[in-house]
Specification:
4-stranded mixed β-sheet, Beta Polymerase, domain 2, 4 strands
């Protein structure tokens, strides 16, 4: 099972807030961000997003926001855009959903014991 590189864990709350502000429906990391090859200062962040077509103009602010959060160049692909067949086939099995999170961050803390 693919996992997000630890480098990206610190910015997840900011990423979630950004996605909410920009009406992003789904966001996936792929490439070096999930396969163990990510090198800060050398690698970029590859992202696949899904939005309503009316919100497709949010792609540029998303890219800028992710770059601010993670300090690395970002390549954003939209799920509605035609993709090269090899990339489309790769993405079928090589992406990790980052937004919406499987578990809400507030729910990850253990309840108080009385």
């Amino acid at each position: 099972m693919k996992e997000v590189d630890p480098y990206f864990q610190n910015g997840l709350e900011d990423l979630i807030q950004l996605c909410q502000e920009l009406a992003i429906e789904e966001l996936y990391f792929f490439g070096s961000a999930i396969d163990g090859r990510f090198k800060p200062g050398q690698s970029d962040l590859d992202v696949l997003v899904k939005t309503a077509l009316s919100d497709i103009s949010h792609i540029v602010p998303l890219s800028v926001g992710l770059r601010k959060i993670y300090g690395t160049p970002v390549d954003v692909f939209h799920s509605a855009w035609p993709l090269h067949p090899e990339l489309a086939a790769y993405l079928l099995h090589n992406k990790v959903k980052v937004y919406p999170p499987k578990v809400k961050l507030a729910e990850t803390t253990a309840p108080a014991v009385e």
